[in-house]
UniProtKB/TrEMBL annotation:
Keyword DNA repair: no
Keyword Transport attached: no
UniProt protein name: Aminotransferase class V domain-containing protein
PANTHER family in the record: HERCYNYLCYSTEINE SULFOXIDE LYASE, L-CYSTEINE DESULFHYDRASE
């Protein structure tokens, strides 16, 4: 048995995570300096930080809601109590200073030029509304013409698609979807399809006013070659580029100067350990006057997006104030956030390959296109034939096996059926975060194997 597998067995026996003994000295040059620690966080301390998790559940779905450690939750409670003790003093003396401090830290983490380029909002859905709202106004005010195009990926998040429908389609804009392959084998496959969509938008003298690009698609989960696509947009004269990167910060390396988009948003409560809900919206500085406004109009309207977003009425702002505490937690790990990302990526690929081997399937993309999530094919004999099957199977795994994992439906490929091959129609999206253990994935493996052994099919879930 090689040393790596010996290490895995040791962790399995002790119920520890498989990811934290791999040292990583790859630091982010743009992140705040990390304190010198005599000892990095231990496995038992990690368990304590996430002891509020339900111990009965194999939680391999960090991608949906993230998870906040106990020390950060304590810091959030302190902010909440400061407000409740003396709301007026909190509002006038502390709130804006605290949000500005969080914005400064985010600015350094993403390598933006200026803190004024960074606003804090509730989530990526709110950020999307801010960007698309000004696109809708451009149509209604005659700056864009009816029939001008917005290009988005076919796998765009559902709420983003609805926002495009609400703000762009309703104002008269044409929407062109980039149909991406899945499973996907290379970045080039994505680039080719993206170019086709831009060509369609520019046909007959048309103009592409906005491109909406995911950095990491949600379902199925794939890392998109975002820098390449933004560069193509510039070459093809696309007016504005908005990157929906809900899963990105804490999952992949971010550099706003390298990416070059006009707008970029990411949630900090998914992979950056913040409590819900907090996201940043980066808006690249422009010599033109800004027409970006928070969709909730309050007293700060007209004072710039960052100021507008920092006060949208009386509410709980504590999740936006704990970014310094989150960085303290992250910097207890060797390599900081870069080290966490590298270990999570390595672990999720290892676990995905282990599951695929056990089930005789494959991953949905090369490992280089997996962030801290991976798509793993489920055995075809489970009979996943529609979206509803995925939802019911997910509930079945939760209720009967204590496993929380999203499942994606992919229509089967006709060529495979013609060759007599059993086509994979269901993929599980597994996540890996610092709290996960090898046992979480072994439970999932064994549950699916038990269903196969029992002759289970999804059709049985409709019998009651």
């Amino acid at each position: 048995m090689d040393s790596h597998h010996q290490e895995e067995e040791h962790h399995k026996e002790n119920g520890d995570s498989i990811t934290h003994n791999n040292n990583n000295n790859n630091n982010d040059n743009h992140a705040p300096k990390k304190p010198k620690l005599s000892q990095w966080i231990t496995e038992s301390e990690i368990r304590q930080e996430f002891s509020h998790h339900d111990p009965r559940i194999a939680r391999i779905n960090n991608g949906s809601f993230g998870s906040c450690p106990r020390s950060v939750l304590s810091a959030q409670t302190e902010w909440q109590l400061r407000f409740l003790r003396q709301p007026d003093a909190f509002y006038f003396n502390h709130l804006q200073k605290g949000i500005l401090e969080s914005r400064k830290l985010i600015k350094d983490l993403i390598n933006a030029d200026d803190v004024e380029e960074v606003s804090i909002v509730d989530n990526a859905t709110t950020a999307t509304a801010i960007v698309l709202q000004q696109i809708g106004w451009a149509y209604t005010e005659g700056r864009f013409q009816k029939g001008d195009s917005t290009v988005m990926l076919h796998y765009a998040y559902g709420a983003v698609k609805k926002s495009i429908q609400a703000y762009v389609s309703r104002a008269g804009g044409q929407v062109i979807e980039v149909h991406l392959p899945f499973p996907v084998n290379s970045n080039e496959e994505i680039i080719v399809e993206f170019r086709k969509a831009l060509e369609k938008g520019k046909s007959n003298g048309g103009k592409v006013r906005l491109a909406v690009i995911d950095h990491i698609t949600s379902m199925p989960s794939v890392v998109i070659p975002v820098k390449d696509l933004v560069k193509i947009c510039r070459e093809e004269g696309v007016d504005q580029v908005f990157v929906d990167a809900a899963h990105a910060i804490g999952n992949v390396h971010l550099d706003m100067k390298e990416i070059g988009a006009d707008f970029y948003t990411s949630n900090l409560h998914k992979w950056f350990f913040c409590p819900p809900s907090i996201a940043f919206l980066y808006c690249r500085k422009s010599p033109l006057p800004s027409d970006l406004h928070h969709p909730v109009v309050s007293h700060e309207y007209g004072n710039g997006l960052a100021v507008e977003s920092a006060w949208i009425g009386t509410r709980d702002y504590s999740s936006q104030l704990v970014v310094p505490s989150v960085l303290e937690f992250i910097n207890r790990f060797e390599g900081g956030i870069e080290g966490i990302m590298e270990r999570n990526h390595k672990a999720v690929v290892e676990m995905g390959e282990m599951l695929a081997k056990a089930w005789g399937t494959h991953l949905g993309s090369p490992s280089s296109m997996c962030p801290s999530m991976a798509m793993v094919g489920l055995p075809p004999c489970l009979g996943i034939s529609r979206e509803a099957d995925c939802a019911r199977l997910r509930v079945h795994l939760r209720d009967n096996f204590g496993i929380e994992v999203p499942i994606y439906f992919q229509e089967t490929i006709e060529e495979g059926e013609l060759k007599g091959e059993a086509c994979i129609s269901g993929y599980a999206r597994i996540s890996h975060q610092v709290y996960n253990t090898l046992d979480d994935y072994c439970r999932f493996r064994d549950a699916i194997n038990q269903l196969v052994k029992d002759g289970f099919t999804c059709q049985l879930l409709y019998s009651n």
